Structures are given as structure tokens and as C-alpha cells.
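Internal QA ticket QA-208
Title: Verify multi-chain structure generation after dependency bump
Assignee: T.L.

Test input:
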Amino acid sequence: MNNKSGWWLNVIVLPVANICLAFLACVVVLFALGINISDAIMQIYQGAFGSQEGRGYTLYYATNFIFSGLGVALAWHAGLFNIGGEGQATLGGLGVTIACLSLDGISLWLLLPLSMISCALFSGLWALIPAWLNAYRGSHIVISTIMFNLIASSLLVYLLAGVLKAPDQMSAVSNTISTDSALPTMKQLLALLDINIAATPLNISFIFALIASVWLYFYLWHTRLGFETRVIGFNEKSANFAGISRQRIVIITMLLSGALIGFIGLNEIQGNSHQLNDEFVAGFGFSGIAVALMGRNNPLGIIVASILFGGLYQGGSELAFNEESVGNNIIFLIQGLVVLFCGALQWMLKPTLEHWYSTFSHSNSKNKAA
Amino acid sequence: MDAAFSWILLLDASLRLATPLLFAALAGMISERAGIIDIGLEGKMLLSAFAAAAVASITGSAWQGLMAAVVISASFSLLHAFACITHKGDQVVSGIAINLLAVALTALLAQRLFLLGGMTPILEKSERLPVISFPEWVVHDGSWWSQLYWQLFSGHNILIYVVFIFVIVTVYFLKYSPWGMHLYAAGENPTALKRAGLSINRIRYLAVIAGGAICGVAGAYLSIGHGAGFVDNMTVGKGFIALAALIFGKWHPVGVMMSCLFFGFLEALAIRLQAVDLAGTGLVIPIQAIEVIPYILTLLVLAGFMGKSSMPAALGRINH
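Actual output:
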């Protein structure tokens, strides 16, 4: 691109084209599998947004996607690739469960901040170890966070088979936290305003996720620390010249990133299932990568992408129920394709678009000259 | 005698569990030696395990299943190479995309083709890769050498013998063939390769595709060698353990072999010690404690606490 007038090509057209390509590829795959596309789209849309219940579930799933996407995006701005979301969310759930079970009986006003702090501490510290290994020992952050995912899953299975196992249960689950300790649902909250909605697992974590998004925006673009984070991510060398300590930024960023992803545990455990089980993370920790890529690492973009993914998750499971057992695999498929086309192949269309643009603007200027 | 036999059984199990790790880790090694990170091992293993079982079940031929596994895994590696080399995409991101796609595609295809809730039909013995029995050189008595011969050396799936031959071939290839030299240079010093007038991209493409093909064998071993059919998400992190073994083995074929055998041994030990009361003390070693040893060792190696980590210098970097 020689002239500056085409800046929007890389900032707007290319990302949108990539997303379209991902969805097109998804349609092609589903078509090849013999699924009726227009029926499926209608069913997913109906399932996700067609009813009050569907919308509630969509936003409930979107909450997980927002937390996960924010965490990945924050690390990304510091040039770090945090793919330890699964492990961090696991530890977050553990922190919430331990807080809720051991502080059972105290007022929810007191319990809520405590369980949130416990959640953030558990997941943040779980991300802190790979961060320390990266900052001070030069370990590859991707590999160490993968290892911490695997360790977290072993740890959870171990705890649920022993210390945390509910004695009266056959399956590996913890004791149930009492209904007084559970997060207020949106239904309860809106009932205070005399608004009646269908009962869904949607709870106040959704509001908290929105607050976290706003916070992340201010943190990254309006604080000194956020500025330093972005400088590190942009160019490590010049950051060093400017006297920014990479080690300090890596530690702080990963701590916050892990804590954000850990709040999946808050939404899942204290918000919905009310007991710890060994598969509550269910891929939400990994999804952050797709969400952040689609949302261009921008909080607003992440919210939009999360609602879309939440809808696909909810609508996709409806599809599983009514037609054939397609299950959650549609959401994994679309996530994979989004990661592929918006991430790994994000520059693939660039030469083509630039060629079209220059042909177009060239012929335009010729016309003007004539 | 009893103790010796039990050790032999344990080593026998270790061998069987180490084989898929070894194929996958060697696959990853070839790709990473050329400078391309391979996080997608897990996904490619899953895809090839499904392809092998599906084709073996449809055609009735295990060899065709193996071919399908190799082709599928290699084509996803081609995609990886296309994204990472041609379009200079992020190698980790591309690998994650492959892992996500693998979970979805195998589950959807399995449901669509076989209507068994994400599984393939259970395979007959004739639809699985053959087991090799050694000649009757040792009599079947209870002696330990007879046990050693018949339990540990003879009677394994053909791929177990293939993998060790493959290790030897890889050592030779890396050390003595010009190809090995080029591969090494592509990962350590691509500029030198360029100055010598060779195409870095061509070498990297070939390495990534070759790695994919070998990873396909790992997947085939799971579903039509060791196992008898594909089960939903049957790799359960084996691709990541292979990655760990690759790092623990410091990107060298013999090191990788030793670490895979060790990790296989730990896995076998964990299965054996499940709820075993140690010396009647009531002390049970939690299997998870053994499970995490490979991960912790890998972290220690990465952090340089156990010797120098010899990661290829240009790994993950494409800027030429």
C-alpha cells in the first residue's frame, strides 16, 4: 500500500473478509456433512435468540467467552500468548468452591467479594508461575502454559477423588454450596425491578464481565501500566530503551490475564452448577483465543464476538437436541476456523485486496483525469 | 521370579504406551528441527486415529487405514505449512486451529458416518495392524529369559518394531545425510542456508509434511494398532505429552526415545499403582502424582534447571 488513503483496507476490510471466510468454510464443511444449511441456521438462530430462555443461555455462555477472550487479549497486548486458559479457569473454579464451602453461612454481601478474590488469586497465581518462568528463566510461555493446563486437570481430578469429594456422592463432585451462597441470577435481580424473565443460569457474572471489559479498555489505553504493556508487546527493544522492565510487565500482565480467565469458574460454579466437577471448563479456556482473534483484542470486539459465540454454543446445542446429535462440535468447528482464518491465515487475503484496491483506485483516478 | 515377571509386564506395558508418544515426538522433532513449532500434534493424532479406524472399518483393510491416517495427518501439516511458511502466520495459532478443528471434525464425521455416538465400530482382528511373533527360539517355560523373550520382545504390534527402526533411521538421517544437515540449518541458521543457495521454504515445507505423515502413524497406532476402533477424543493429551517428551529429549532422536520410554513407563506405573496399598501401610500413591511428573520435568528443562535446553535457534521465527 503506497498511499495512505487505503488504511481502512487492513483495519476493517481484511478482518471482516477473514471472518466471512471462516463462516463460509464452516458452511462448506457442514454442507459436505449433509446438513441442511438454511434449516440449521434457522434452528441455531431460533435456539439462541428466538426465546427468552434461549437468550438467557446465550448470554450465560457469552459470559465465559468474554472472560476468556479478555484474558487472552490482555496477554496478547504484552506480546504473550496465554494458552493456559483451561488450567487458569480450573483453578478459578477451585478458588470459588473453596471460598464458598469454607465460608458457608456468611452474608452474600461479604461472601461475594471474598469468593471473587479467592477466584482471582487462585487463577492469577496459576498464571504467575509460567510468567515467572518466562520472565526470569526464559521459558517458552506457550509450552509452560500447556504444561500447567495438564497439571491443573490432574490436580482437579486428584482433589475431587479425595479431599473435596462429596462423601454422599458416587461421582467425582464436591459438596454443593448452599443456595444462599450462590450468585443472584438475573431473574432474581430483575424481579427487584418488577421485571419477570424466564429462569436461566444467567447471573450477575454477566454484568461483572461487562465491567471487566470496560476496566480492560481503561487499563490498556488510559493507564501508564497499560501503556507500558502495549509498548512491550509492540517492540521489546524500544521498551527496554524507554526503561520499561519487561519482567515486571510480564508478571503483572499474566497475573491479571489469569485472573480474568479464572472468572469462568465464578460464572460456572457459584453462578450455575453450585458444585465443582471435573469438566466444568469444557474448552471455554481455549475459546478465548478464537474470541480474542475475532474481537481483534479489543474489549468491545470481544463482547460482540462472545455474544455470537454464546449464540452458536446455545443454538448449536439446540440443534443437537432436535435434529441429529451434532452437539457442541459446531462451536469447536467455528472456533477452529476462526482461529485459522482470522489468526494463522490473517494476511492471506491482503495481496488480493490490495491488488483490487489499486486497480480500482487507479481506474478511478484515470476517470477523474479524463 | 514373581517380582521379575511383574517387572517384565510393567516394561511390556511401558513399551506399548511409549510407542504412540515416540512416533508423535519424532514427528514433532522433524518439524521443529526445521524451525516450525508443532502444537498441532494432538489434533493430527486425533484426526489420523479417526481416519485409520474409519477406513479400516469401511474397507476391512488395516493397511489402507494406515495410509489414510498418514495422508490426513500430512494434509493438515500441509495446511500448517501453508499458513506458517507461505503466509508467515503465527505457528502456535495455526497449531491451535488444527487442534480445535480435529476435535470437531472427527466427532461430526464419526456421528455422520457410523451413527454410534462419535465412535467407529469395534474392529475385528483382521482389520487391525498385525502382531509380530518371534520364531520359537526359546522354549515356553517359566524361566525369566523365557518371559523376557515372549513377553517383552515378541508378540507386539508391528508398529512397535517399526518405531525403533525409525529411531535408528532418524539418527542416521540427521547426522550423516545432507538432508539432515539442511534440516538442521533451517532451524538453527536459516541465513546460512540461504547463502548456500538453498530454499529455506522448500526444506521447511518438506519437513513439516514429513512430520505430519509420521504423526499419522502415531494416530493409526492408537485406533488400529493398540486399540480396536476410534473413540471420541481418544488422544486425551498424548500429543501434548509427546511435545513434552520432545523438549525433555532436547530435540535429539535418542533423547526423545529415552524420554518417551520413560514417560511410557510412568504411565504404566500409574496404571499399576492404581489403589495399590504400599507395603500394607495404608499409603496409596495417587496416580495423578505420577501423571504430572512428565509435565514438571518438562517445565524444569524449559527453565534451564536441568542442563541447557537446546531449542533450535530459529524455532518459531520466520523473518527472512
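Spot checks passed. The mean pLDDT of chain B is 87.
Status: verified.
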